Amino acid sequence: MGIDINPALRACGLNPNMAISLRPKIPSFGQQLEQDRFESNNPARFTNEIALTKLVNSNPKIQAILKEVGAPVKLNMADLKPLLDNHCTDVQNVALGIAENLPFSLQSKVDKISLKEAAYLHDIGKVLIPPEVLNKNGKLNDYETEVMHKHSELGYEILKNTNLSKKTLDLIRNHHQNAKRSGYPFVNKDFRADLDLQILTMADKYSALTEKRVYKEAMTPKQALTIIYSDVKEGKLHPFVFKALVSYANSLKAEDVPIV
User: Which domain holds residue 135?
Assistant: First the structure.
């Protein structure tokens, strides 16, 4: 059966005849524009080695960030594709699933384009995290944690001078932040964890907890939701976003892993 969300909410105080022509078909001006628009809007355009090399080399701040932690400026392309194909794609699906399960009044407030782009690109900064840190089979020490925590800021800096919206870029930079401002990277007192960010943060954490990684086994959906609920109780995430995640997770139980 599904998880009963009501007690959790109470605990938080929120009760196909065309003629055949032998001439080669030339796309019309409008058709060409549509094709170009599709290609230019695909966030995967930033994830190939040529594009990434150009983006990294054009921003000196990236070198400065890595120099701070003694890490080399080297693309880890071997780990990027599986990361995008698995975790990032899953985060995208979960984030959109959360959005679709929000109360109707909140659904209209979600920037789905920015959310979808940011969910797919949120971990692109990990292409600059050394493999020995990214794939360590065990707990990271303090130095390794410092290096790993640079990935969200690095992702922002890699994509900062592209045509992505400011909203998408801010979501990428702050996907490890929360309403209590206790995450990373540093934000000032005016920072606000809006609805889109809370959806992305929750989707990222749920995906990470429920997937097997080199250093851990996959958790069940129920185990993951229990952990995330602790963030709700601490005021880091909104109960309505959590309830939408539970509804999304329960909707998958017939075709995926039952939540009991």
Answer: 45-251
